[in-house]
Every structure is written in C-alpha cells, then in structure tokens.
Write a structure and sequence with these properties.
Structural class: mainly alpha
Active site: 105
Domain Fido: 34-169
CATH architecture of the domain at 25-132: Orthogonal Bundle
Shape: globular
Strand content: under 5%
Organism: Rhizobium tibeticum
Distance between the termini: 30 Å
Number of helices: 7
Radius of gyration: 15 Å
Protein name: Mobile mystery protein B
Pfam families: Fic
Mean pLDDT: 80
C-alpha cells in the first residue's frame, strides 16, 4: 500500500509517507524564513498526497495547541527566534524549534511528525546529524509514543533536558 491508496487509514498513510521526497536540506532555510509559508511548504510536500488541507493552517480549536487565530503570529515569532538561535548551532536549537512547533500545533493532524522532520532538516542545515527520536517509529501507539508525550510535557513545563535526551536515543 502507498499513501495514495484511498483504502488506507490516514495514519498508516502518514507513517508510510516518503520523507525522501522532501527537497534536499540545502533548500530548507529557516534562518531566512520571513513568514510561516516555509512551514506550510514542508507540510504540503510531506502530506499533500494524504490530505487536501496539507500546508493550510487549521481554523478550528483542538484539545492541544494554541488558539487557531494565533497560529500565523506565533509561527512568525518562532521563526524569528530560530534565526537568533542559529548563531549557537546546537541540538537545543532544533529541539526547542520542534517543541514550539508542536505547541503551536498549526495543522489538524500530523504536527508531531512534521515537527520532527522540521527539526531534522534544521539540525542538518546547521551541520549536525538527524535525530533518532527514540530509535523507532512513533506511528505505533505504545511505550515509545507515551515516552515522547511525557518528554513533550516536561518541555511544556520548561524542562527541555528530557526531550533533548529522547531526541538522541
């Protein structure tokens, strides 16, 4: 089955999305992103074959994420912060970027997967290695995903260390 198979559950399609179709990391420049459009472009490339709305900000409220009307402003603020963080070129830049993307929760679905890929692209752009994100796929609902959510919650409470550790295990 492929992400194009309409009989496939959307979550299966996301898990099978070929991240190799994302442009070379040299084309990803969050340090030069003047608007949230660069984030939309990644989601469109990543999930455009799965959902029609891919790359379009959500317009409804959910149980996680900020209010929908704040997404564009918060994303622009995040991208400004990233331009500042890039001067330091450490894993923490990409992990904080990831955490804030998840917290903003700009799309109806696929936010964690998008945030992990965006963090991977950012760290590669900065000359680092992609993260392992616990060493297995987070598509499976289980112990690894539970751990991921726990470290995200720790980061919500201003403790970024567990998320940094998880990203490199």
């Amino acid at each position: 089955m492929t992400p194009y198979d309409h009989k496939m559950d959307p979550f299966e399609a996301i898990a099978q999305t070929d991240v190799q179709k994302i442009p070379d990391v040299k084309d990803f420049h969050p340090d030069r992103a003047d608007e949230p459009k660069s984030v939309n472009d990644i989601v469109q490339l990543m999930l455009g074959d799965v959902w029609e709305w891919a790359g379009t900000f959500r317009t409804t409220e959910g149980n996680i994420g900020i209010q929908a009307y704040r997404v564009g402003v918060e994303l622009a603020g995040l991208l400004r912060d990233v331009r500042y963080w890039i001067e330091h070129k450490t894993d923490e830049i990409a992990i904080r970027f990831h955490h804030r993307l998840v917290a903003i929760h700009p799309f109806p679905n696929g936010n964690g997967r998008h945030a992990r890929l965006a963090a991977d692209l950012l760290i590669e752009r900065l000359g680092g290695e992609r993260f392992s994100w616990g060493g297995r796929t987070l598509a499976d609902v289980g112990e690894l995903r539970t751990c991921y959510v726990a470290v995200l919650r720790a980061a919500d409470n201003h403790d970024i260390a567990p998320l940094l550790e998880f990203a490199r295990t």
